[in-house]
Amino acid sequence: MMLITPTAPVWIAARALLAERKDDLEQRWKRALKSFDAEDIHDLRVSSRRLREALALFSPCFPAKSLSRVSSRVKRLTQLLGTMRNTDEALLFFSDLAAPQLPAGSPLAALIKQLEAEREKERKALAEGFKSLPLRPLREQLDSVFKRPAVFCNDRIDPFMAMVDYARREISERDKPLRELLPLACREEDISSQHRLRIATKRLRYRFEILAPLVREGHGELLATVKAYQEVLGKMHDLDVFAEIVAKRLSDVTTAALLLEEISNRRHALFAAFMGMLDTDPLDTVGERMRGVL
Prior knowledge:
Blueprint: H1 10-35, H2 38-57, H3 64-97, H4 107-132, H5 135-146, H6 163-185, H7 191-210, H8 219-249, H9 253-280, H10 286-292
Helix pairs in contact: 1-2, 1-5, 2-3, 2-7, 3-4, 3-5, 6-7, 6-10, 7-8, 8-9
């Protein structure tokens, strides 16, 4: 990792930090392509999201047109990897609910079998997707962008601004929507706001991770806080997706009712945990605390 000092010009720091994200994506891409393991695919998807966040973070430092092209390509990768991850999570959830000797003809067993077949189709589609979206052109596009920063005649930012000042400003940009959504997400029935808060929390986490070289101390503690919120909100969102699967796919009324009740109980417990976290480690102060350690 290249040493980035707080006073480094933002355009220089941007190139170094983006290069780190590119290298991480390449390593995880090769690993996922070789194994097709669910965990490796998930790690690659997260890496692609981190790269997209880094591109958004440093977008004022580079020509908009070239950056837009490469951002679109990375987004396609994220989307390509998303479907199989969702099926994997659904398979894990419903398989854990199933009894060890679940009758082959039961509605839940049939749903699991259906998800397994879909997972195999998605694996094949992902293999084809990798062929249509090879690594080399993306690497070349990224390298081309990094070599041409908008240093002069830049009307969006001062490229020579100290990186630490830029970092504090950009943490505020990601923290603002989080604080706006939080009061709405505290209503248990407001699933939409909780989903959007999950995304806002995830983006703030990625941004803080990218800026880790600038952090003096306290990085691990703050990151653990954001991860904990992201995890509980993510589990709530997964349960919402599972409930939709049950409602749409299970025609057996009795089985569907039992599953939906179980999902509802688990979601209620997660929401209670979320509200408890807000009392012990408030989410609305995280952005300010992040700026304080930069």
